[in-house]
Amino acid sequence: MMRSWAVFDSPIQNALHTMKYRGNISLGDALASQMQDFLGSLQWKIDIMIPIPLGQQRLKERGYNQVALVAQPLAYHLGLVYAPQALWKSRDTRSQVGLNISQRRENVENAYQADQSMVSGKSVLLMDDVSTTGSTISSSTDALRMAGARDVYAITIARALAHHSLNRV
What is the DSSP letter of 133? Predict the structure, then answer.
C-alpha cells in the first residue's frame, strides 16, 4: 500500500527541488513535521522505517540522501525504528528524470537489496520523495519481500499527477 502526502506541484515541488538540488537540508525537518499527522492518521502497524537509498555515486556527488533528511526526523516523531542500512542500492542507476514508464521500470529493476536479518518478519515503511510511476517503490518492495519482510507500506512526500511531464520529476 502506498500513499502520498501532497501533489508534486508548487510549493512542494519547489521545496523538494531546493532540498535535492540546492543543498537546503533544513527543509527535511520542516517537511517531516508537516507530514507527521498525515502518516499517523493512516494507522499502519509499522516496525521499521527505511528511506529509499541513493546509489554510491549519487550519494558521493550530493553528499546526502534527501529522502533520509525527512525520513529520520519523521521516524523519530512517530516513535519508529529508523533503519537506513536495511536497504541499499546494489548498482548505480540513471536518474529517472526524463525516462518513460518502461525505461523507469527497467532502470531500477533488481537495483536494490535488503538485509534479511533486519527486515525478516517485520512490517516496513519505505519512504521516497516523489512517486511518478511507482517503479522505485516497486523494485525496493521486491527486495524487501525477498528478504522476508512481512508487510511493506510506502509513503512519498509527493505524487506526480498524469499531467506532469516525466522530464520534471
Answer: S
